[in-house]
Amino acid sequence: MGNRDALLDGATQCLYEKGYARTTARDIATAAGVSLAAIGYHYGSKEALLDAALQRAIEEWGDRLAASLATVGEAGGTGGAARFEQAWAGVLASLADSRPLWAVQFELIAHLQRTPELRHSYAEATRQARLELAAIFGTETADEAAALRVGAFYQALLVGVVGLWLVDPADAPSAPDLRDSIRTVAAGLTAG
Description:
Layout lengths: L2 H16 L6 H8 L3 H8 L2 H23 L11 H16 L3 H14 L3 H21 L7 H24 L7 H17 L1
Helix pairs in contact: 1-2, 1-4, 5-9, 7-8
Protein name: TetR family transcriptional regulator
InterPro entries: Homeodomain-like_sf, HTH-type_TetR-like_transc_reg, HTH_TetR, TetR_C_31
Keywords: DNA-binding
């Protein structure tokens, strides 16, 4: 493994152990087993390295989740509410293994206002995440604007559920809870 990869691994380790704001360049260099100068050489700054490590971690989580959910809805042609529940069961199961990743992302939300370049990179990643979430939950459409709206709904639900789960996993909603809540909300919308 070269210095560039070692730095990414070291930065990821530091993000998970110390968080974004408390990680120093020295922490990363030590974890990676490289010199401080290697950070500047390969990434330009500690922040750029941390951003790259976080982006890689998010992509890896997304890839693992997509792979685990690839068969959702395929067994017996399951769709609708059953597909929704299966997908959320997979998402919720993934949280236990990725708690540090989500904690760092919530920490970064506070930094986005003061860091325009980070906010910009998150905004770009968010657009793709919305399209992927719409597909994961079976709301595929040729209308990209509609897919983005539906993906934003799922993203808002995901962020909210993750926030509740980070505070108290035992009291966070389950997949059946989410399914039943969606049904209740949809019934209220169609009743009027």
